[in-house]
Amino acid sequence: MIDKGANTPPLPIFGLERAAGPEHTVNNAASYWAADYQNNSGTNQLTLQKTRTFPASLKVNQPKPTPVTPGKAFTPPAPQTTGINTPEIAEWTRTAGPDESVVLTGINFTPDTRFVVYASDQIKDAVIQRILPDRAIITLPKDLPKWQMYLVWPVNKAGYGLPVAINKTDAWWLGPDNASPGQTMSVYGCNLAQNNGRGSLAAYVYLTSAHGKGYWANVKEVNPYKIDFIVPAVLPAGEYEIWAYNGVGSNFGWAAPLPLTVKPAVKFAGKEFNIKDFGASSTATPEANTTAIRKAIEAAKNAAGGTVVFPAGVYFVNDYLPATPNTRWRGAGKDKTYIKCAATFSKSAQGLVSGAVKNFGVSSLTFDTNKNFRGAIDKPVFLRHSTQVRFTNVGFSFQGYDLLDLHDCRYIFFNQCEFIGKASFLGKGSQLFFDENSFKLTNDTDMALHSWGGVGISLTRNTCQDLDNRDLDSGAGWGKGRFFTGNGIWGSCRNTYLGQNTTTDLTVRPAHNPIRHGEDPDQNSGEQFMWEGGEGKWAGYVKAANEDTITISGYDQKTPDIHYAVITKGKGFGQSRRIIRNHNGTITLHQPWRVIPDSSSHVVIGDFHDRIVVYQNFLDGKTRAVTSEEHTATAGIEPFGGVLNFIAAENTLQSLRAGIANFAIQHNTGHDPNFFHLYLNNKFINCRWAIKNWAFPNHGKQVATQGPFMFGVIYRNNAAQGSVLTDVVNEVPKSGLPLLNMIIYEHNQFKEDKQELAGLGEQLFYKNKN
Q1: Domain boundary residue, one of 606, 628, 651
Q2: Claim to verify: residue 210 and residue 223 sit in the same structural domain
Q3: Number of structural domains, the chain?
Q4: What is the SS3 assignment for 58?
Q5: Which structural domain, as residue segments, surrounds residue 183?
Q6: Are residues 552 and 700 in the same domain?
Q7: Distances (CA, A) of 509 to 472, 478, 522
Q8: Which residue from 52, 149, 41 is spatially nearest to 95, judged by alpha carbons?
Q9: SS3 state of residue 156
Q10: Which of 166, 251, 423, 424 is most exposed by smallest CB count within 10 Å?
Q11: C-alpha torsion sign, points 571, 572, 578, 583
Q12: Running DSSP on this structure, what letter comes out for residue 762?
C-alpha cells in the first residue's frame, strides 16, 4: 500500500505474459502481473504479485467461446487503487493518436494529478495542458506507438483511479439487427478500423450463439465507423451476439457485444401474376387498370409469396394500390414501367401505394403522381407501421408533393431509387437504409428526409440536388438546401450514419428585394445535414443516485428511450445516459455511471441526439451563400443544440456559408448541451467561415451556474482554403459566461484569426498551421 507520507507513487511495472479469458477471468490459467506499492525504510519500492484474474477495474469484455484474438499481445499493468481521494475519470474523448489531445472529466483532479498512459509495453506520462478539479485536457506523448489502444490512469498521491481506454473498438449499433444467413449487414460505431482510417484498414467480426458456438464473419468493407460483413451462411436461426474488434488491444480490445436475431430468408413462392392477364393495359381506362392491378395483387397475396409483374408500359390508375404482405411487385425497368395517377384520381384515396405490411418489395418501375394526386392521405406512399420492405431501382416522380410516410416502420431499404418531389417523413421510423439513391428537390421543400426521433438510420452513397434551379422566380424546381434533418419532436434521434453522400448546389432560393411575402422562401434555411429540436425538458439537482439510477423530482415522462440525462455540473460532470425507465422519479439508465452523481450534480434531461457519424461526404452549396451580405443558414453540417457524441470526419465542404455550424442553445428548460464532438480530417473550400461555434442563452438568461453549453469539442487535422471572412468564428454573449469550454483546435491548417475571448473557457490551440 502507499505510505501516507509518500509522494505520488511511481509508474507501475507491466508484466510480459499474455492474459486471456472472458468477463474478468482467465480460463487458461495464464498469469497476470499486478503492482503493489509498499514502504520499506522510508523509500517507495515496487513488488509484483501474480494473479489469475484480470483486475476488475479494467472491465474486460470477451466473446465466449473466446477465439484467438488477432494482433499483438496487450499486457497492461494493474496498479492498486487506494484511498477515497483517488482521481476518477467520468467521461473522455475516445479517439486520439500520439501528440493528440483528449478531454477528460472526473473528480479529485488535484494539482499533483498525473495521467499515466500504457501502450504496447510502454508507460509514459501524458502532457497536461489544462486541469481543473473536475476536467482536464491532456496530450498523449508524441513518441507513443502509432494507432494503438491506449489505457490512461489518473493518479495522485492518494493512488490510482480506474483506467479508461482510447482507440478501443466501440460498436454502437447494427444495421439491420435482424438478418438472414448470407445477408450483408453492418456494425456502426467508432474506432472500428485498425489505424483509424490511416493507411491499411482491418477489422474483425465474431458471432457467438447462446449454445456456446462461435463464428468468424467475412468482412467486406471497413472504415473507422462502419464494418460491412456477411452473416455466415451456416448460421442456424436464433439469437446471437456480434463482437467487433479493430485489431489492437488483444483481449482487452473487443467492443461490447450487440444483439442480432437471425431468421431464414423470406422465400417467395415463385408464382408470378402478370397484370395484363387481369385486364390491365396502357390503353385501358384508369378504373379498369385499378381493378385489374388490385386483382393481381390479391392473387399474389393469396399465393403466399407471389410476384406481381408489371410489363413495360404506362398504366393510369384512379385509386390507391394496396401493399400486401409477402408479395413483390416487379416492373420492366425504372424507365420502362410507369404507374401514373389519372386526372380522375380519387379524392378519398389512401395514397397511391398504401398499407401496413411485412415482407413487401417493389423493383424496376416508376410511380408518377402526374400532377393529379389527391386523397385522404397527403403522401402518395404511405407505409406506416410496416417492416421488412425493400424498394430497388424504383422511381418516385412526385413533383409538387411530399413523397413517403415511414413513421413507426422498421427494416426499410431503398437502393438505386430516384426521389423527385418534396420531403419524405421518417417520423420514428428506425432501422432505415438508403443506399445509392438520388434525391431531386422541388417546390421549395424544407428538406428531403425528416426524422422525428428515428433510431438506426443509414444514408450511404446518395446524391441530393435541386430538380431545376435555373428560375429564381419560381420554387418549382428548388429545395431549401436541406438533405437530412433529425428532430427531437418525438424523442431523441440516435445511431445515425451519413456516409459518402454528395450534394450539388444546395442553397435556399434567394428572396426578392423587397421580399414578396408568401412567395419567397425563408432564408433561415440551407443546413444540409442538421439535428435540431433536442430540447431540455427537465433540469435540476439530483436527490439520490446509485450506479445506474438517479432520483429526481418533477420528471413525469414514462416512455422509455426517448430522453437522455446529461450531468452539466457537479459530481459526474460530462456524463450522458439514455433513460430506459422512470418509476416515481427514480430513473434507470441504459448503462452505469462511471462516477456516481450526488446532490451537487446538476442534470438536464431532454430529447438529445446521440451517436451520430457524418463521414466522407461531399457537401456543396452555391456561391451566393458565401458572398451575400444577406443571411442564409446554408451550412454543411449543423448540430443545432442538444447533440452528444457527434463525429464528422473526412468530409469535403464547399461553397457554404459555414462548413460546420456548431450551435449550443437554450429553450425554456435548462439548456441543450453539445458535449463531446470530434471533427477531424475535414476539408473546407471557399466557405464564408469554415467553422462557426455559436452559443447563446434564451433571452439572455444567465445560465453559467448550470454548466457550459458546449464542452469537449475537438477540431483536429482539418484544413481550410479560400475562406471569405475567417476560418473559425465564435459567437457568444459579451457577458463573458464560459459557455464554450474545453474546446481543442489542434494540427489544423487554419489562418490566424483574431477571436473574441468573451464566453470562452479553457480553450487549447495546439500545433495548428497557417
Answers
A1: 606
A2: yes
A3: 5
A4: helix
A5: 170-262
A6: no
A7: 7, 7, 9
A8: 149
A9: strand
A10: 166
A11: negative
A12: S
C-alpha triplet 95, 98, 99: angle, nearest 5°:
105
Same domain for 668 and 588: no
Q: What is the pLDDT of residues 280-336, one digit of tens each?
A: 999 999 999 999 999 999 999 999 899 999 999 999 999 999 999 999 999 999 999
Distance CA 439, CA 500 (A): 14
pTM: 0.92
C-alpha cell at 697: 442563452
Are 39 and 162 in the same domain?
A: yes
Residue 477's CB: how many other CB atoms inside 10 A? Answer: 19
Cell of 220: 467486406
- Indicate the helix (H) or strand (E) that contains 302: helix 286-302
Q: For the segment 58-110, what is each residue's pLDDT rounded down to a tens digit?
A: 668 899 999 999 988 998 887 776 678 999 999 999 999 999 999 999 999 99
Signed CA dihedral, 697, 700, 702, 704: sign only: positive
Calpha distance 201→220 (Å, rounded): 12
**Is residue 676 a contact partner of residue 644, using CB atoms and an 8 Å limit?**
yes
Of 122, 139, 166, the one marking the end of a domain is 166
Residue recorded with cell 389512401? 350
Distance, CA of 498 to CA of 646 (rounded, Å):
12
DSSP string of 618-648, one letter each residue: EEE--HHHHH-SS----EEEEEBSSEEEEEE
Longest dimension (CA), the chain: 104
Question: In terms of residues, how long is the chain?
Answer: 770
Strands 218-223 and 272-274 turn out to be unpaired
Give the separation between CA 525 and CA 511, rounded to whole angstroms. Answer: 12
The helix/strand/coil state of 126 is: coil
